[in-house]
Amino acid sequence: MSTPAALRSRAEDLAAPLPPLLAEAEHLAATVLLGEHGRRRAGMGDEFWQYRPATPGDEARSIDWRRSGRSDQHFVREKEWQAAQSVLIWVDDAQSMRFAGDAGRVSKAGRARVLALALSVLLIRGGERVGLSGFDLPPRRGELQLLRLAEAFSHEGAAPDYGVPEARGMLPHSRALFLSDFMGDMAPVEAALAKAADRGVKGALLQVLDPQEEAFPFDGRTIFESMSGSLRHETLKAGDLRGRYLERLAQRKARLADLTRIAGWHYDCHHTGESAQGALLWLFRALERVR
Hints:
The protein is an alpha/beta fold. The chain has 2 domains: 17-36 and 82-289, von Willebrand factor, type A domain (Rossmann fold, 3-Layer(aba) Sandwich), CATH 3.40.50.410; 48-79, no CATH class. Helices cover 38% and strands 17% of the residues. It has 9 helices and 9 strands. It has helices at residues 4-15, 19-30, 65-68, 108-125, 143-154, 187-198, 211-215, 242-263, 276-289, and strands at 48-53, 75-79, 86-91, 129-132, 175-180, 202-209, 222-225, 232-235, 266-271. The strands form 3 sheets. It has a 5-stranded parallel β-sheet with strand order 4-3-5-6-9, sandwiched between helices. Helix 4 links the parallel strand 3 (86-91) and strand 4. Helix 2 crosses helix 4, helix 4 (108-125) packs antiparallel against helix 5 and helix 4 (108-125) packs across helix 9 (276-289). It is elongated, with a radius of gyration of 22 Å. The chain starts with a helix and ends with a helix. Mean pLDDT is 82; it is low at 34-45. InterPro entries: DUF58.
C-alpha cells in the first residue's frame, strides 16, 4: 500500500512537466463561479454518500447497525450512483488540430486541451469523476486524477490528419464531451454519437475552429496543405473557392447540430480568437443541462 509520502512524491514527479497547462487550466477554471454542483444521488456504487432514516420496506441487511446503535432509530447507509457521476472526455489530437492561422494565436489543439482540463478541474472539485473515453484513463476523483489528465492532454505524438471520436468504454447513463474541429469524415462522428445514445450517454460536442477557417480570407494564388503535408491543393483563384467553402462549412455545422440533437447532446462552435472563458462556461452549463 502506498504511503502518503510516496503518493505525494509520485504526484510531484508526475506534475513536474505539467505546470504551464495545469496552471492555465486552473486560472481559467477560477473565472467560472461554482455554485452548488454535482448530481449526487443514491444508487449502486462503492463509495459512501450519506445515512438516511430507515423506512418501511428497507431490507434488514441495508441497515447500518453501528450507526443505528448510536440513536433511537435505524439508519440506512447509502452509496453514490457511480454511472451518473462519470464524465468521459475525448480531445482530438489529430494534425488538423495543430493549426493556428496567426503566430500569436493559440492552436485549436491548445485551446481544446486547456478547455478540457479546466472543465475537469470544475467537475472534479464539484464531486464528479472525470476520465478519458476509451480504456486508458477511467473516470476517477481527486487531485491526482487532474495530474493524470494534464499528462494525457500534454502528450503530442504521431497522429493522422483528422481525428476520429473515441466512443469505447462509455459507462451507461454517464456524460461525455467531444472537442475537435470535426473537419474530417463525418461517418465516425455519427457512429460515436449513435453508440453514446444507445448507452444512454448524454453530453456536449464543441467544434473548435480557427478564425481563418471561418472567414476563408484567401485570394489569388494559394497553396492549401494539410498539417502533415499529405494533402495538397494549389489554385490560382482562391477567392473563387470562398463561396463553396463557406457553404460546405455551414452544411457541416448544421449536420453536427442535427446529430447532437438526435443523440440528446448539445452542440456549439468556438473560435480560437474568442475568449476561452465563454466556451468553458458553455461547456459547464451544457453538461449540467443533460444530467
